[in-house]
Amino acid sequence: METSSIENAINRWKWLDKVLALELPPTKDMLINLKDMKCFCAFSVNGYFIPIAYNTLKSAMHNSKLREITSDSNGNKWTHLLKKRKQAYSLVLSTLNKQKKPTKTKREYESEIKECLWHSHLCSLAYLELYRSITNYAKEQTALPEAARYQLERMIDESGAKFSELVSPQSPIRNLGDLSLVVGGKSEY
Q1: 10-19, 44-53, 137-146, 179-188: segment of lowest average pLDDT
Q2: Chain segment 80-123, per-residue pLDDT in tens
Q3: SS3 letters for 42-60?
Q4: Terminal CA-to-CA distance of the chain, rounded, Å?
Q5: Which of 23, 121, 148, 179 could form a disulfide with 18 if both were Cys (CB 3.0 to 4.6 A apart)?
Q6: Claim: this prediction has a pTM higher than 0.85
Q7: Phi-psi category of 25—alpha, beta or left, where left has phi over 0 and alpha has psi -120 to 50?
Q8: Residue 142: helix, strand or coil by DSSP?
C-alpha cells in the first residue's frame, strides 16, 4: 500500500471532519461530490486530496498503519467513513436548503410592482418638468446665439420624439386631444 493512498484517506477524513464542523462553507460542488462514494472518490479538493480509486480508498481504510482514523462501533474504519460521508452530505444539503431565499407572496410582488411604478412615475415627472423648463428657456431667451438656439431646439425635438409615449396629466409632448371619456355602463331594459 502506498503512503500517498493512506495520506489521501487521512486527508479525506479530516476534510469530512471540517465539513461536519461547518468550518468549511457548504457549496453546491460539495453537495454534488458527496452524493455517493463514487463521486466522493472522484472528487479532489486543492490542498486536501486528489481523486482516488474506490477500491484503493477502501484498502487504505483497512490498513493497519492508519491510526489517525477512528473505527465505528464494529471496529470498521471503512463503514465509519461511509457513514461520515452520508452525514456530511445530509448536513450540506440541509444547510444549502436553508440558505435558499423564501418565495415571495403575491402581496409582496404587488407591493414591489407598485413601488416600481411609483419610481417610474417620478422619473417621468422629473423628465417632463425638465423638458418643459428647457423648452420655455429656449423660447424666452432672445440673447442666445442662433447656432446655440438651433442646437437646443434640435435636442428638444429629438428628446420629444424619443419620449413621446410618456404619459402625464400635463404632458407637453403627447397630444392629449385623442383621449376622451367613455360613457357606458349597464343599460336599463
Answers
A1: 179-188
A2: 899 999 999 999 999 988 877 667 788 888 888 888 888 888 88
A3: HCCECCCECCCCHHHHHHH
A4: 99
A5: 23
A6: no
A7: beta
A8: coil
Cα gap 88→13, rounded to integer Å: 11
Query: In the structure grid, which three cell numbers stand for residue 9, read together?
Result: 484517506
29 closest CA partner among 17, 13, 42: 42
Q: Is 21 helix (H, G, I), strand (E, B) or coil?
A: coil
Q: How is residue 24 annotated by DSSP?
A: S
Contacts with 57 (C-beta within 8 Å, 6 or more apart), sequence order: 5, 8, 9, 12, 41, 81
Q: Residue 25 has which C-alpha cell?
A: 462553507
DSSP 8-state symbol, 64: T
C-alpha cell at 7: 495520506
